[in-house]
Amino acid sequence: MSTFWSIWVIVLTLTNLGLVVWVLFANRKVAVSDQNEPENRTTGHVYDGIEEFDNPLPRWWFLLFVFTLVFAAGYLAIYPGLGNFKGLSGWTSHKQLEHRQEKAQEKFSETFGKYETMPIAQIAESREALKMGARIFANNCSVCHGADGGGNYGFPNLTDNYWRWGGTPEKILETIHKGRQGVMPPQEPIIGEEGVKDAAEYVLALSGQEHDAAMAEKGKKIFGTVCMACHGMDGKGNQAIGAPNLTDDIWLYGSSREEIRHTIRNGRHNEMPAQEDKLREDKIRLVAAYVYSLSRQEEVEQ
């Protein structure tokens, strides 16, 4: 806060307190003696036949106001409330937050702390750990990947054995920590609309779907020139850069002819946000273990 606004707040606050004090004491009048005539005991204000007596505030009420003023003065002296004045106690909301976080960390470390250095595969063997991981997943990940981890349009299924960036415990942990950026550049400016259609037919052929053979043959040449660098000559993708496998039946944005054309024509941009600034290490490892376990359910059942 600038010096001007700091002084403005201080003056405004103290002026208002001063006015409250003045109003309070201005209304503390000495009661009119009962021996005076009744008309001398009124203020002269009459409304609907009701006269206002000239009596002071009750003593308990007056003292209660005085107490609030004393409390306000003490509060403004101890805590920040007057512009840039930080108060005699040095209290700040940031310090209070940090203190509460430290206390919470001490409390939660009793429950989660043991998982901070435990291998992911070992954590995945603990039913108790998986229950905690499932709750953390539900609070932080299910909005994109679904409550069961089955994914949504544009968000990958975590329950199968297909991984764009790798499904080892280390890769899953890396993905949760750092996040991922999946970018498919738009190709229509490079290969034109006819090239988009031909390339789409070749992608359909790679995945074993119905396609136009003549167009697919032309699309194969385009694929070898433009798409091979990311997806590989055989179209099976590259986990190092998150390029998907085009030869299976797993599609993030749909496998219809129009959806594939749209992807090639306009590109795609998908992001997995980094969680290392949002979750503690122990919670990240619990989530990683839970995700790792989702893709091993069939193996565990067997």
Could you characterize what this model shows?
By secondary structure, the chain is mainly alpha-helical. The protein folds into 3 domains: 3-78, no CATH class; 113-179 and 273-301, Cytochrome Bc1 Complex, Chain D, domain 2, CATH 1.10.760; 182-272, Cytochrome c-like domain (Cytochrome Bc1 Complex, Chain D, domain 2), CATH 1.10.760.10. The chain is 54% helix and 7% strand. The chain has 12 helices and 4 strands; from the N terminus they run αββααααααβαααβαα. It has helices at 3-26, 59-78, 93-112, 120-123, 127-140, 142-145, 169-178, 188-206, 213-231, 257-266, 281-294, 297-301; strands at residues 42-47, 50-53, 180-184, 268-272. It has a two-stranded antiparallel ribbon. α7 (169-178) crosses α11 (281-294), α8 crosses α9 and α8 packs antiparallel against α10. The longest helix has 24 residues, at 3-26. The mean pLDDT is 89.
Which geometry do the CA atoms define? Answer: elongated
User: How many domains is the backbone divided into?
Assistant: 3
Estimated radius of gyration: 36 Å
CATH domain topology of the largest domain: Cytochrome Bc1 Complex, Chain D, domain 2
* Low-confidence region ranges: none
Average pLDDT number: 89
CATH architecture verdict of the largest domain: Orthogonal Bundle
Portion of residues within helices: 40-55%
Number of H- or I-type helical stretches: 12
CATH-defined superfamily of the largest domain? Cytochrome c-like domain
* Largest β sheet strand count, sense and barrel closure: 2 strands, antiparallel
CATH class descriptor name of the largest domain: Mainly Alpha
Largest sheet strand order = 1-2
Number of strands: 4
Order of helices and strands: HEEHHHHHHEHHHEHH
Percent strand equals: 5-15%
C-alpha end-to-end distance: 65 Å
